[in-house]
Amino acid sequence: MKRYLLQALSICLISAAFISCNKSITETNMVYPALAPAKLDLNADTWNPVLITNTNSFTVAAPDAVTSPAYQADLNEIKALQSNITSEQRASINYWSAGAVLRWNEILRELVAKHNLPPYQNDDGSYPAPNSTNPFAYPQFPFSNPPYAARAYAYVSAAQYDALIAAWHFKKQYNRTAPYKNDAGIQALIPKSDLPSYPSEDAVVSGAAVEMMKLLFPTEIAYIEQKAVEQKTYRMLAGANVRGELEAGELLGKQVAAIFAARARADRAGKAIGTPALWKQLEVQTLAKNEQCWVSLELPKRPPMLPLFSKVLPFLFDTLTVVALRPPPPYSTSSAEFKNETDEVLYYSKNATRERQAIVTFWADGVGTYTPPGHWNYLAAQEFVKENYSEIRWARNLALINMAEMDAAIVCWDAKYYYFNPRPCQVNPEIKTLTGVPNFPSYTSGHSNFSYAAATVLSYLLPDRGSKFTDMAHEAAMSRLYGAIHYRSDVEMGMVTGIKVGQFAVKRAQTDGAGN
C-alpha cells in the first residue's frame, strides 16, 4: 500500500489520549504562486447553481462611468496606496493573490481546528453543550466535530460558488475593465486579467464567506471581518479593483449568503444533539435486539456525538435517499464473524509497525485538527493549485467535494445510530488503540465515508491522476483498522457508502454546465 507522509511520526505530538496532527498550524498560510487562471470561464454565468434561481433578483447597481469624477477618485485612491507600499503590504499581496477561494478555505479550516475541542465535564459529571444563542458562554459555540465541520465546509463553498455565478452575470453585463487598464499610472502587482472587474470576484467570495462564517463561528466575527478588510485592501494595493468594485462585490456576496444562511437555520442541524431520552432509547432498542450496544468510553461517560445528524437536510439528494443508502446490518455481536473481526482488531493493536503507525497518525484528524473533511479540502487544494483554475472553478469544485462530504456525514451518522454498534476496545478490553476513540458508534467508519466520497469526486475532476485519490482514500480508511478503533466491516461498508455519495456529486458535475 502506498504511504503518505511516513515522517508524520516525527512531526506530531503523541499523547496518551489521542494521536493527531494539528494541520492548522503546519498547512495554512502556505506560499503559493499568484493565481493566473488558464481559462477565465467567461460562460460560468450559465452554470447550474446550488440554491439561487435568478441572478437578476440580486441588486448590483450600475458602476460609475470610467470618465466620472467618482471613478477618477477611486483611481487616485489606488495611486496613493501604491505610492508607499510597505513590506507588510507586499506580504499581504503575495498571500491573497494565491486566490480568494483558496485563502478563505484555509481560514475556515483554521477556525474548524481551533473549535474542534470537546468540552470538559461539569463538577457533577454531566457535560455542558455549546449554545448558538449564547456562543461566548462555556463551552463556546461551536464544537466543530467532523459532522459540523463537513456542514461548514459545504455551506461556505456552495455559497461562494453561487455568488460567483451571479458575479459573472453582472461582470458580463457591465463589462468594466480593471483599473490598471484604465490608468497608466496604476501598477498591476498581480497577473493581469481580461476578466471584467465589476463587481470584484474577490469581494464576492469574501462577502459570501464572511456572512456564512459569522453564522457558523459567531465568536470569531472580529477575526473574520479583519481578514475581509485585509483582502479588500490587497485588491486596491495590487491595482486590481477600485473601492466601488469591491463594495459592489461584497454586497452581492452577502445577498447570496443570505439564501444559504436561511437554509442552514432550517436544516435541522441545531437539533442534532438529541436529548437524554433519545440517548437512552438508542440503548434500549439495541439491547432489545439481543445485541451489545455502544457506550461512551470516556470517564465520565459523554453523551453521544450528534445522534440526530442523520436528519439534517442533505445537498445532493433528499432525506429518503439517506435511508436508501443505509448499509446492511453489521455482524451480530454474538456471531462468530463478529468475534473474528474483533480478533483481527486485536492483532493490529498488538502488532503495530512503524509504517502502520505513520498511516494512523497522518490520517488521525482528531481533536484540535480541521477534521477528515478538512484534510480532504487541504489535499484538494494542493491539486487545484497546479491546475490554474479560475476563482469560479475553484469554488465549484470545492462545493462539489464539500457537499459530498456533508452528505456522507449524514449517511454515515444514519448508519451509526441506527445500528448503535460497539467499538472494538469496548468489546475486548485487551485492545489498546493507537489513536483516539471517537465518542460515537462504530459502524460505519466516518473516515471511510468521508475519504471515498471525496476521492470519488476528485477522481472525476482530475482523471489524469489515475488511482491517486482512491489509493489515499483506501489508506485513510484502513488507518482506522490499523489504529484499532474500527472493525474491517466498518471500513469496507464505509467505502461503499462513501463512493455512492460521491457519485451523486459526480452526477451533478456532469450536468452543471461546467465540464471537467
Radius of gyration: 24 Å
Give unreliable regions as ranges: 1-26
β-sheet strand percentage = under 5%
How many β strands by DSSP?
0
Distance between the termini: 29 Å
Q: Main sheet, how many strands, which sense, barrel?
A: none
Q: What would you call the structural class?
A: mainly alpha
Detailed description of the structure:
There is one protein chain. The protein is mostly helical. It contains 20 helices and no strands. The protein has helices at residues 8-11, 23-26, 69-82, 87-96, 100-115, 146-174, 179-182, 201-216, 221-237, 243-265, 276-288, 319-324, 336-350, 354-362, 371-387, 391-419, 424-427, 446-461, 468-482, 488-511. The longest helix is centred in the first third of the chain and has 29 residues, at 146-174. It is elongated and about 80 Å long. The protein starts with 7 loop residues before the first helix and ends in a 5-residue tail after the last helix. Mean pLDDT is 94; it is low at 1-26.
Give a brief rundown of this model.
Helix content is 55%, strand content 0%. It has 516 residues and is mainly α. The model is unreliable at 1-26 (pLDDT under 50).
Features of the shown structure:
516 residues, mainly alpha, 20 helices
Question: Could you give the topology of this structure?
Answer:
Layout: H1 8-11, H2 23-26, H3 69-82, H4 87-96, H5 100-115, H6 146-174, H7 179-182, H8 201-216, H9 221-237, H10 243-265, H11 276-288, H12 319-324, H13 336-350, H14 354-362, H15 371-387, H16 391-419, H17 424-427, H18 446-461, H19 468-482, H20 488-511
